[in-house]
Design a protein that fits this description.
2 copies of one chain form a homodimer. By secondary structure, the first copy, chain A, is of the alpha/beta class. Chain A has 12 helices and 14 strands.
């Protein structure tokens, strides 16, 4: 009889994977995924970039390349982080990963042994939680409010918890809540982290999708002790199907990630790295991001208006300044996993919130995505959701 | 102070990564890598396939897709395994990975807890050994001879060793030795494995690069109990820079690999999967493989002749029927790591053999690659190697 490793006891086929299958049903209005809008992809430009790469350096694009990634692409990402996030880093402090999901997986493998503690926002990104589970950690959830992680709670937890090996946070337009930390909280966070000297994984897939107000500096830009590992990705601003993300960390930490990369898959695709790099040579990524931001902002507005108009007052939800998601809280007696089945009958889907709490026990939330639907579908879907919620309320 | 996970104590930046850097020096005649010959890549055809994908289904190629991989590509690989390896499998029994290196990494994570035993051929592929080390196993090396793994030793080791969780083998044109198992050994192997019911990782990157004699059936084709996990790759027959490999296993085992994939990087690049799939729709992969096989056969012949002519009789080496490597054994008093530095002075490189023995202690071997050099360079390099070996022999 085949025996499996103990770490598998903690893992199930992830909710994300199952949900991607649901999304494939064309009759469903899906607020479930976190997919960018496919009609906005720069398909023609990426095609031209691909042609240029194959004509100019085809045999290089087809060959193996270094684990760290394409030097020119790493330099561009370093330059971009300087402008967008106020992060000062060299190309050598960047590792190209197969999406930022791979950075999440490596983070746990670099820092966490069985039984070690990972601190996460409550709630946090379920794809990260699932990746981390393979290292058999204990999760401690840090309370959040409308401004993000609550710093007083963080300080108390760090003061009283042994073996905390890393803190995982998404300070900008968090997945699932859409919330963003204020500058004051960011400074306070780094003050606390510096006191305890715990590595921080700062996951920032949505930072450039800001619809209003000012950009916040990345935690990494406030990091004076080399504690912050920053994860970036091209998935939400350029193209997810190329699987291009990156890790930025100080030299010592990045070397550990590079070692992981060699064992995990040798390197990220040479072709997709060169094609994305060439796209940035030939075209204006900022202009593209500006365009998709306008569309997502509009869809956010449509969704917020519809939820305000149709949702019963018992349903509370966040008002994100950017990103792809809003987060709905229902009365504690409603189980959103059960309600999801009623919603599927009405042909509308969301992600039940329970999986975003690693220690479970909170089933009255759900996540809603607004990035890849037409106005009409958003309104129709919100109306259907509202009706199902209404029917679940105690009179 | 930042603390790292215990698993990192076992890992160093891999020899392969360091070697890929050496190869980059244009003045070196490198027999070190395992790189396919870049002048043989079907660059124009892959370019056309990329154009077709972007024009016909560009927004699909740019979007997220399923963890398991593109259904059409998985079907083609299932069909190909049936013809080339006598393996009967459905598309659903295949997971697309980011190169077969990712399959190696997942294998250990699926089957191996800290302290569990992995059996490997002695010597075995160092990229697998390094990937496995992240799961903190104990390696037991099974002796090999010119015909591959010695079955009597395998049986004895399995009878007397606790907690063997998997057996890793490369039966065709092994890396590093170039050796191939006979049909008789394959049958005996499956008989023994069936007795103990231990999962087998059959790694077959080079099987289609056979220069003479008959194809051997894959172990997977002889597997009656669903114990064999087969790893294939397009790296050596089509294009390594796309990072496309696959895992083929029975339903229960494959489900565990699929779960690992979701956590590790969600999915392999949609674009490179669709581009490789389109290449196979538009062009004749078999004809391409035939072409590269002829070139590699010629280079193998050139290298064998040169080694027979110039190497001192104290240097013994294998005569591979296919694949990319030959394996050289020197007298036990010669340390090939130290000799590698002398060779670099003469501008020729190989991989010292020590790292291919996970438990160490054998430093008088080295691996030689013949796939990506001109005839002249092969002869010049072998002459230089021969001179250095000669100078290290005791008079």
């Amino acid at each position: 009889m085949v025996r499996y490793a103990k770490r598998l006891d903690r893992l199930n086929s992830s909710d994300i994977g199952d949900l991607l299958k649901l999304i494939a049903r064309p009759d469903i209005i899906s607020f479930a995924g976190g997919l960018p809008a496919p009609e906005l992809f720069p398909v023609e430009e990426l095609k031209q970039a691909g042609i240029a790469v194959m004509e100019e350096m085809g045999s290089v694009a087809c060959q193996y390349s270094s684990a760290e990634g394409l030097p020119q692409l790493r330099q561009k990402l370093a330059d971009r982080m300087a402008v967008k996030n106020n992060i000062k880093a060299t190309a050598d402090q960047i590792l190209i990963t197969s999406g930022s999901q791979q950075g999440l997986d490596f983070a746990a493998r670099v820092f966490v042994d069985e039984g070690d503690v990972i601190l996460v926002e409550s709630p946090s990104y379920l794809g990260a939680i699932n990746a981390y589970k393979a290292c058999e950690p204990t999760f401690v959830e840090v309370p959040t409010d409308d401004g993000g992680m609550v710093m007083e709670d963080l300080d108390k937890i760090l003061a009283s918890t042994e073996n905390v090996k890393m803190i995982y946070v998404i300070p900008d337009f968090q997945n699932p809540t859409g919330r963003t930390w204020s500058l004051e909280r960011r400074k306070k966070f780094m003050e606390i982290v510096n006191k305890y000297e715990i590595p921080v994984i700062e996951d920032n897939p949505y930072g450039e999708l800001r619809f209003e107000n000012e950009n916040m500096p990345a935690l990494k830009s406030l990091d004076t002790k080399g504690l912050v590992v920053y994860l970036g990705t091209l998935s939400k601003i350029m193209v997810p199907g190329f699987r291009l993300g990156w890790v930025c960390a100080n030299d010592e930490i990045l070397e550990k990630f590079n070692t992981m990369k060699q064992g995990a898959d040798l390197q990220t695709s040479t072709l997709t790295q060169m094609q994305a790099n060439k796209y940035m040579d030939l075209y204006d990524l900022d202009a593209h991001v500006h365009k998709i931001r306008e569309v997502y902002k509009h869809r956010r507005d449509v969704m917020m208006s519809a939820m305000e108009e149709y949702f019963p007052k018992e349903a509370k939800f966040t008002h994100p300044d950017g990103g792809l998601f809003t987060w709905v809280e229902l009365p504690a007696y409603i189980n959103t996993k059960e309600m999801a089945l009623q919603c599927l009958e009405k042909k509308v889907a969301y992600v039940p919130g329970g999986s975003f709490f690693p220690n479970g026990g909170k089933e009255n939330y759900f996540r809603v995505n607004y990035s890849c639907m037409t106005d009409e579908k958003i309104i129709e879907g919100v109306k259907a959701l509202a009706a199902v919620i209404q029917s679940n309320l105690k009179k």
